[in-house]
Specification:
Distance between the termini: 43 Å
Radius of gyration: 16 Å
Largest sheet: 7 strands, mixed
Keywords: Signal
Number of domains: 1
Low-confidence stretches: 1-22, 180-197
Order of helices and strands: EEEHHEEEHEEEE
Shape: globular
Structural class: alpha+beta
Mean pLDDT: 68
């Protein structure tokens, strides 16, 4: 039986706006923020020189394969030491979603707001990969991503990594949420926001 899981999410977006509120956040499970839920921390020009326009998701997939890197690898390299951004580390745990979904909501409604790949991990096990998550997990009210929580035995970290592309600008965000942990389980909840433009 699943007793709980800690959630983290790291997602990189591309956008011109200097504030991430235009892009949204993880809604299920919902992290606890200390202040703003989505301010950018770092700006960087195009992480890889894949240019602007065209099939950036396809270009990223090709370059990632050539470099032997996953979405997770790229995002973690982008955020560097900005891994604990704006969430409350000792926030109360959240229950494991009974519907088996992780849900992303754009701040103006809908789901993912940019094309780009995403991955979800439970601890070190990849449980979801999409080459273009905006397309593969189309938003209604949210972009709903099916997650198999069965690999969690009560003290797990779920992480979502998302790279969203809009022209040559990249932004990276990272968040962690505690999910239904038992009394003796680790209770961490962190949100990292890094913006790469």
């Amino acid at each position: 039986m699943l007793t709980g899981i800690a959630f983290s999410s790291v997602f990189a977006l591309l956008a011109f706006a200097p504030n991430a509120d235009a892009h949204g956040s993880l809604k299920q499970p919902k992290p606890t923020f200390d202040g703003s839920s989505a301010e950018w921390v770092v700006l960087i020009d195009n992480y890889w020189d894949i240019g602007s326009g065209g099939d950036q998701s396809g270009l990223f997939k090709t370059m990632a394969k050539e470099k032997g890197m996953s979405v997770k690898d790229v995002v973690l390299d982008m955020v560097k030491d900005k891994k604990c951004g704006y969430t409350v580390a000792d926030a109360p745990p959240q229950p494991i979603p009974s519907d088996g979904l992780a849900k992303w909501a754009g701040s103006s409604g809908g789901g993912f707001t940019h094309r780009g790949p995403c991955e979800i991990y439970i601890d070190d096990k990849m449980v979801l990969h999409g080459d273009d998550c905006e397309e593969e997990f189309k938003g209604g009210e949210t972009s709903d991503m099916p997650v198999d929580y069965s690999s969690c035995n009560g003290n797990c970290m779920l992480t979502i990594y998302w790279l969203g592309f809009q022209n040559a600008q990249w932004q990276a965000y990272s968040e962690y949420t505690v999910d239904g942990l038992s009394e003796n389980s680790l209770n961490t909840n962190n949100f990292v926001v890094c913006d790469y433009s």
